[in-house]
């Protein structure tokens, strides 16, 4: 008994590779209404692409989302530390000005 490779799986892999390499955009709108009065509109936008392709077109939101990236959590913590430092320095400066005016 010999094993024959499936042509369909190769075709699916080829199609998937092309989709991830080039990217695909699927867009659609769903509108719910009664008696010609629009009550709700849902806009659906889906982009299917590889991570490299997404970064190439400027989509990297997952890198700054603290729920998805530990780098984002560290970045957010560092940003807060910097902001606290600047506020502390500003407060000290204002306190010194108040003391000198007294």
TrEMBL record:
InterPro entries assigned: Gas-vesicle_GvpA-like, GvpA, GvpA-like_CS
Signal peptide: none
Subcellular location, record wording: Gas vesicle
Pfam families, alphabetized: Gas_vesicle
PROSITE patterns with a match to the protein in the record: GAS_VESICLE_A_1, GAS_VESICLE_A_2
UniProt entry keywords in alphabetical sequence: Coiled coil, Gas vesicle
Keyword Coiled coil attributed: yes
Coiled coil (residue ranges): 70-101
Source organism superkingdom: Bacteria
Family per similarity comment: Belongs to the gas vesicle GvpA family.
Protein name: Gas vesicle protein
Source organism (scientific name): Metabacillus rhizosphaerae
């Amino acid at each position: 008994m010999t094993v024959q490779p499936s042509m369909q799986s190769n075709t699916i892999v080829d199609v998937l590779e092309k989709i991830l390499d080039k990217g695909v955009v699927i867009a659609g709108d769903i509108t719910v209404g009664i008696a010609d009065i629009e009550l709700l509109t849902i806009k659906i936008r889906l982009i299917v692409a590889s991570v490299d392709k997404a970064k190439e077109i400027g989509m990297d939101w997952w890198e700054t989302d603290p729920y998805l990236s530990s780098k984002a959590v560290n970045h957010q913590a560092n940003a807060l530390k910097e902001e606290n430092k600047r506020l502390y320095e500003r407060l000290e400066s204002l306190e010194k000005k108040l003391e000198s005016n007294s």
